[in-house]
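Tutorial handout. Part one gives the primary structure; part two gives the three-dimensional structure as tokens.
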Amino acid sequence: MTTPRKKLLLIEDEPDIVRGLGDALGFEGFEVRSAPTGAEGVALARSEAPDCILLDLMLPDMNGYQVCELVRRDNALVPIVMLTARGQESDKVRGFEVGADDYVTKPFSVAELLARIGAIFRRLDRTSGFVERLRIGDATVDLRKQTVSRARRTEALSFYENELIKLLAERQGEPVSREEILEKIWGLQRPAPNNRTVDNFIVKLRRKLEKDHKSPAHILTVYGQGYRLVP
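Part two.
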């Protein structure tokens, strides 16, 4: 039985890049669709259900951050790799905050891009001995499906929300520093002092997990250290 080809959606307005990446990725066995604008990309993301989205930051109608936010409203799970000439850490952090899974700075080689895509698919496909379900207060987290259910309501968890819960659960009851979280989950080292990526994701998780996200009982702040999980 033939394994279906993974579908990639390339949202990019430069014809030469679209043609070059389309040919290279097609040669590697991917089915590639492309869109030259953010609006067309969002529409294709909804209709084509791609396995991964390659998203240019600079588009003629809107920027990649806006496209990423729109895609995330419909699909919290599809991997999104941002392609951009910007290499500043602040740009990368903003990309992660709006839901990107990885960030590749132009110029890049096809080999590097393939390695990044492959790493994302391996993370999604990995099956470790870690428990698949967690009970946190009155909420149930399904780590394989990337969902959280409480009060008869089920919400999707983004890739990074899911990874953050895993890390806190692995160290249950112990404080985990922001620096360690950024390094292990986002691959960022020596983060800037004003980096709010972790704090922003903690706020999102509390809204989904806690009865009262303003007075959390399970994802606790350990002042001067980081965060810890108390089931």
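Part three, for discussion. The radius of gyration is 18 Å. The domain at 133-229 is CATH 1.10.10.10 (Arc Repressor Mutant, subunit A).
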